[in-house]
Amino acid sequence: xxxxxxEDVRPKNPVKPMTATEVKVNVSIPEAAHRAAVTGADGVxxxxxxxxxLSTNKTPECYIRDHGEDAYVEEIVEGVRTxxxxxxxxxxxxxxxxxxTDEFRQLQGGxxxxxxxxxxxxxxxxxxxxxxxxxxKHELEAFRRLYDMGYDNVEIMLPLVxxxxxxxRARRLMEEVGIDPDKRSWGIMVETPAxxxxxxxxxxxxxxxxxxxxxxxxxxxxxxxxNNEHVAGRFDELHPAVLKLIGDTxxxxxxxxxxxxxxxxAGSKPxxxxxxxNCGISxxxxxxxxxRDVQHEVKRVEQKLLLDSxx
Length: 311
Ligand code: PEP
Ligand code: MG
What we know:
Blueprint: E1 22-27, H1 33-37, E2 44-48, H2 50-54, H3 60-67, H4 69-87, E3 92-95, H5 101-104, H6 125-131, H7 133-148, E4 154-158, H8 164-176, E5 186-190, H9 193-197, H10 199-204, E6 209-212, H11 214-222, H12 240-255, E7 259-262, H13 270-279, E8 283-286, H14 291-310
Parallel strand pairs: 1-2, 1-8, 2-3, 3-4, 4-5, 5-6, 6-7, 7-8
Helix pairs in contact: 3-4, 4-7, 13-14
The protein binds phosphoenolpyruvate (PEP) and magnesium ion.
Domain PEP-utilising enzyme C-terminal: 13-302
Protein name: Phosphoenolpyruvate synthase
Function: Catalyzes the phosphorylation of pyruvate to phosphoenolpyruvate.
């Protein structure tokens, strides 16, 4: 790692640097919204819905059975609203439900979950959502209510998408609950090599953004289980294959005017930040504690690019 020449003299609470690349923040639970907002981040790059559901200790199906559909929708509305209020008008990218069956199995109602040998390759993310539209539509209904309340800073992000078919089916369901996809900001996570390789077609289907989920993109590109300690040493988000998929995807997205972002853990790593800014990514979303450092790293890389261009 390069040493930072300003390390010792930098003020404790420096002014937030202005950068062309936006620096956003990942928010895991609504309770962290305030702490995330005061970092000065340009928005939320990832708000995971599953923590709002998992914290009720019930699977979605079980929650709906016990409390009714409306209570389920309101649970999501209230969780997202806490964050959307704190950040308004800065954008908040909310990811639809993406918990693997082995996580759902721990909860009430978990006995109904399918047993899978490879949950990470299985029934999760957009696959499950599209297979259970009656449950997925409640999530979309929550977004519709938020839009009706005026939260136009809320964006919809779809996890584990593989191809344009996934995108078009999700788009249709949005329309069915009364969301106009042409008026709202929505997009996909790039978490599989398939999605990186098919990004051009998906751009043509009307997505506004593509966000790299490097935790999964690394796992699936390198065939290294992210939860398996025996291969943990091989889990490398900076592997040339992962970087090539990311770089090529950003280039295609730029041609199609699709906004690009990263919301995986690697977005908090200086080396990844340098690579992404050089590729021309639109925004980087980091953990709350890393936002300040990423802001400064982005500034440094942008200044260097600017100087290189005029020399
Ligand atoms: C990712 O895959 O990088 C990501 C952000 O999603 P999760 O870690 O929730 O799978
Ligand atoms: Mg993921």
